[in-house]
User: Fold these one by one.
Assistant:
Number 1:
Amino acid sequence: MRYLRSSRLGGPLLALIAVLALALAGCSNDESGSSGPTSSTAKVEVSKVDEIAALLPPDIAQSGKLVIGVNVPYQPNEYRDASGKIVGFDVDLMDAVTGVLGLTPEYREADFDKIIPAIQQGTFNVGMSSFTDNKEREKQVDFVTYFSAGVQWAQQAGGSIDPNNACGKRVAVQSTTYEDTEEIPAKSKACTDAGKPAIEKLKFESQDEATNALVLGKVDAMSADSPVTAYAIKRSNGALEPAGPIADSAPYGYPIVKGSELGPALQKAVQYLIDNGQYQQIAENWGVEAGTIPTSVINGAVS
């Protein structure tokens, strides 16, 4: 969660892997192929709900917009399509949320680890980048939950990686994610405590780079949020497969300034979309319905 051996290959196999790597590398700016969402153009139409919009802080209501910090690419949640527009499940849902609130969303890119500080400083009203809501982060900001994701490992097709016994293996992660800061360090410590080799964690600035490292055989496995891993496997055309089951499910949330009046407004807007079925429709459009939640809350961290 976002809190987040090099193989010697030759001939046709190397060429195939190179092609797959290029295809994956292009995810951030070209998602026009058939492997994208099942209904990428079927935007859910949402109307303003006055009683929910009335909950907005006066300054945001008067501005008519919601300034949203986002880090891309992180398919299928947020990334750029072939035209350079930021799209994804998170984007479609936030478009719907702002529709309920009668606001225009303004997406601004930022480094993932700089989004929460920018919210605290007032640069962004809210963050939207697959943030895991956890107790540590709740000391800094409040969260409005909207999804549930777990950790899912991937490996090259035909591999035999066990996420719970990966001592001595090379594992790719995106920098500053839950997998980077908590999951892999904990698993590695269990290895060394048992007298086994540590897990060699390789950090990458983007999820695309982590996925490409696995496709190219530079690592033995990768660990990412379950919807992200599922999407990478789907786009690999059989080069990648799951390694072990989904584990450590936790909520995604929108980070906002602690105590802000924006929290109840966002929570009511998300719940409205859940209750009327539009939330489910958006999730199904992107194939991530396994992570939908029945109730949005403020600060729903489980650990």
Number 2:
Amino acid sequence: MTVKAILAQKGHDVFTIGPDEKLDEAVRILAGHRVGALVVTNADKAVVGIVSERDVVRVLAKQGAAAFQMPVRKMMTSKVKSCHESHTVNEIMEIMTAGRFRHIPVEKDGRLHGIISIGDVVKRRIEDAEREAEDIKAYIATA
């Protein structure tokens, strides 16, 4: 299965924030939409960073409540690993495992096109395993 197939099922909606927005706005969006990360984009919808719940916890531990007024650009991860629609689930798993992160933006033509979470990857792997088991059962039943 590819990233393109995952996005075809789940959609291309991504919650974003601008780099100059304050952390309190990022926290409001994260909590309000019950998501674990926001992709930071510029005016052209190009990915310039990502801010996750982990990033929020780290900056709050260092800065305390004053962090809520800091711009997102000061705490975001700016070296973002991204993927494309042609990546496979296995490739995405390898990238996420190596980088120790749970969200990866999908880019197309230099712009944000979607996002894949570790939950999306696990769900697709389970579906593939179940489908394979059913195929094997059907094969054995007809043999």
Number 3:
Amino acid sequence: MDTQKLLYCVLCYFLLSLLSAQQVVRGSLAPHHHHHHHSHRHISKFRPSKLFVFGDSYADTGNTGKAWPSWKYPYGITFPGKPAGRFSDGRVLTDYIAKFVGVRSPIPYRWRKYGIPLLKYGMNFAYGGTGVFQTLYPGPNMTTQIDTFHPLITDNVFTIRDLQSSVALVTLSGNDYAYIASSGGSAPAIQSFILKVVKQLAVNLKRIHGLGVKKVAVTALQPLGCLPRSTAMASFRQCNGTVNLLVNYHNLLLEKAVATLNNETNDSPFLILDLYASFMFVIENKGSRKFENPLKPCCFGISSDYNCGNVDESGAKKYTLCKDPKASFFWDGAHPTQEGWNAVYSALQPTLEHLY
């Protein structure tokens, strides 16, 4: 891939967008909004009582099959104490959003038959490895996840009234892009693919809201260039700036798409959770929670970053594990630890106030 050409193209886009009047101001971490919205929160009539979740491993709480690493030790060692399908040592973004809304983490679709009383908190359709299109990994993409949700409304598992007091969390964490950057695509090809991804994501968001869900929160793309699988070559010392420029392009398009969707509706139901800014805030140690080397993961494969949890034929570990997951921001090659998610959640608080 011609990196310089790519950088140049992306920079042109940035300049254009900065000159355009529609530039949305990224103020998601500005703390001064905080108290202002807090005071409104209690007077507003909307109080969510259910959470519906669509997306990938940043939100999955147990939908993947037992063959996935998320069901192998050491995943889940912090919570619930054994592997249970979360791609972390413990809780993930869904669990923190549920906590904010004030409900229990919604039951994974896969376990719906075993947890009928838990249906009252909503449902989680997210599945590790998926995206808006078919990715390298098996599993239902976002369209299929929404297709699965739809009949539950027509069959009255969830009523129209349930949906009116509900929030959706939608995560898109880069599985659609997993190989395009490394496969040497040209800059224009990568850019047009990013456009396609964001366009399809917007279609999905509109559809979830169209089914009756009151508020829809979607994640901006996290800094993919800072994930341990991107920084391993640099001994986890610095982020890959080229990759992050592409992420910024995705996020800029997402801001425009969401602004358009909000303009088309009366009550601005769509909200971006800026994982880029919140990950960066934590990685740069600006929050109250400091991580000694935020880029270094707790559990990392010896021969490949995907090996956390894998063992060879004789049962020897193919990974190294840190002493204390609480001291790490990243858990494995791509996912935060529970402590990492907690720090990201703290940084997202001002934005989350808008869910009410």
Number 4:
Amino acid sequence: MSLVAYAPASTANVSVGFDVLGGALAPIDGSLLGDRVLIEKGTDDYSLTCSGRFAHKLPADGKSNIVYQCYLGYKAALSEKGMTCLPVAMELEKNLPVGSGLGSSASSIVAALEALNALHDYPLGEMEMLALMGKLEGEISGSVHYDNVAPCYLGGMQLMLEQGALISQAIPSFKEWYWVVAYPGITVSTSAARAILPAQYRRSDVLAYGRHLAGFVHASYTNQPDLAAGMLKDVIAEPYRQQLIPGFKEVRKYATQSGALATGISGSGPTVFVVMKELDQAQRLKSWLEEHFIQNEDGFCHICHLDEEGARVVGTQL
């Protein structure tokens, strides 16, 4: 038996919700923007191979790969339930660049765990899985946060709650919005992007953050897209992180002139996102970004809607 699990790219923070808001991404052309993991019963306890566009960016030592940590974590979780993990052979198809701001590590983690859980007939529930995903993500970034793994796993726009066993819930999203995401081809590490942030914030910034986040969630539930777009302002990270992204100010200026509802940094960057209302505007912006923002052959740009499905089994072979 073999199966392939897919986990979509995600945009964390979404400007207004630092560490507490994230959305999964689905290109409107039907392509899959995210990592895939093939799993089958193996002859040894565990084996891993890697393929895909960005496989060369992964550690040469397979036991340094996050997928191995997923296997160990899942095996331990099954053991706590009195169950035994099957011997598995896994292949990670690495389609997202590392350090891109598109939830690359989250995509690998979620795809691997979704594959493992599916192979074992889903013994772990959603919140058990999400807790394990957050723990593994924290081992990479240095702190547990769910704003990539939650939308990647559950789909849609997710609000992190972390109330008891409830980690995250979906909030309504605007189906008419186009999310133009552009990765320039350079790397910004999450740890470096966090290190550049101040240790303390002014009271006015904290109040603005709370107002914008509350306003966005309220507008999402009351179907007020213009109000929601107006709330997409980042006073926590963008003022400091924009210096790590060459051309960000030019992107914001051009996007605004082109009718953008909002522009922001996806996760820790360097990917930027622009919310557009009209498809023709989004297509013109995509062409401009490909010419003026993307720096090398590793870069790319996609027009997306939110991926409402999240992680899923997509077939039996890569």
